[in-house]
Amino acid sequence: MSYLGLDLGTSGLRALLVDAEGQPIGATERDYPLSHPHPGWSEQNPADWIAALDSAVEELRTTYPQFADLRGIGVAGQMHGATLLDASDTVLRPCILWNDSRSHAEAAALDRTPNVRDLSGNIVFPGFTAPKLEWVRTHEPQIFERIAKVLLPAAYLNLYLTGDHVADMSDSAGTSWLDVGKREWSDELLTLGHMRRDQMPRLVEGTEAAGTLRPELAHRWGVSPRVVIAGGAGDNAAAACGIGALNEGQGFVSLGTSGVLLAARDGYAPAPETAVHTFCHAIPGRWYQMGVMLSATDSLNWFSRITGAKPAELTAALGPDLITPGTTRFQPYLSGERTPHNDANVRGNFAGLSAGTTRADMTRAILEGVAFGLRDSFEALRATNASFDELIAIGGGTRSAYWLSLIATVLDTPIRLPASGEFGAALGAARLGIAADQGTDVTDIMTPPALSASIQPVTALKGTFDSAYDAFRASYHWQKQAPL
């Protein structure tokens, strides 16, 4: 038996084939473009996701004989994106992505509406789905009138795989249309957002069967027509499944395009005033909370494009040992910010530049700015009584030992890395596929990976980084730019 986990990310799709015990057999990745037609806009063509999936599956099918015994598929996806379909399931416009901030005014208006935070458990952030539809209603009314279904990116792949409009709880919790405590669509929230229940996909838990593979795909892929498609998950819930973060006290820090600090919670206790996100977990009857910054490795990648040096080259120039904060400072708000500011208009900047400032100084300032942004989320989570003895670190930014030492020191929390192998959202998605097919207890499937040695905070530098963080927090207020 084999199972397929799909991670539909912002810049590309990762496909992971595992065996019945969740051990990796093989993996592949496909990239696709991202469009920014106007400042603050971020869009993708859903056809590119399908092309990436078809290409990745073809490689796995022809490379690994075990693919022929495929039993289940799980999809993890970038959250919040608005994929708009007409009555024939034709895509009406490019998908508006999670890091698109055009609907900041609509988000603020919805957030001020009575009962919205109470029902959704969250602030209505500009990146969430409901304000995107309000923007479309105002600025693209001809398209709005033709909308028959609104699907998140992962749900769009579920449609391609099953032929049905179906989504899971964890992904749907980021729309501002879901009653997150009751785990069902809220008619009141839908009405406030000028939407209807019939425009929403059918809801299932992430571990449930959402459907079976379409016969056309089963024939093309050379697999059984009884392949089960799991409900799936939003990318961070899937990553939590991949590292076994299911219970109170478990969590991770993710250094990806965005920066995420996630805490699994045993119950539902929203705290929207902290700008922490409270979402359904992919596991039935569980939730998680997270703080999100919009530009983590994206900040370093931006600087990489500006300088022409690869990110690894930039961070390698800092050496292995953490040093005191520099006089050059960086605000990592290239796309606005969520936790704790909920500010779509603020933008990034450097301060403290001089004629003697070097590229290494600016790189160090970027790493420090991102670490301080994660500290913002850490403090917001602590306000909800979340606590961590240690954090598992995942994502591309973990390749920098300097950055990990910096984050451990700024958060005053030990950091652990998975020792080897797969452990991210693609593995979590595959594990959901196993659960949907086998009905196995999730605690038997979603176990933590073997971990490497702990990266400890540099105690001697903690005080200086605390002071630098206080300055970072204070500077936010006077470094904000005018609204877009």
UniProtKB/TrEMBL annotation:
The Gene Ontology terms for molecular function here are:
ATP binding; D-xylulokinase activity
Keyword hit for S-adenosyl-L-methionine: no
Ligand binding (substrate):
M79, H80
Site positions per UniProt: Important for activity: D7
Reaction equation(s) it catalyzes: D-xylulose + ATP = D-xylulose 5-phosphate + ADP + H(+)
Report if keyword Methyltransferase is assigned: no
Q: What keyword terms does UniProt attach to this protein?
A: ATP-binding, Carbohydrate metabolism, Kinase, Nucleotide-binding, Transferase, Xylose metabolism
- Residue ranges occupied by any Carbohydrate kinase FGGY N-terminal domain in the UniProt entry: 3-242
Query: Per its UniProt entry, what is the enzyme's top EC class, as one word?
Result: transferase
The UniProt entry, under Pfam families, shows:
FGGY_C, FGGY_N
Cite the active-site annotation.
D235 (proton acceptor)
GO annotation terms (biological process): D-xylose metabolic process; xylulose catabolic process
Q: Which family does it belong to?
A: Belongs to the FGGY kinase family.
Q: What is this protein called?
A: Xylulose kinase
State which gene encodes it. xylB
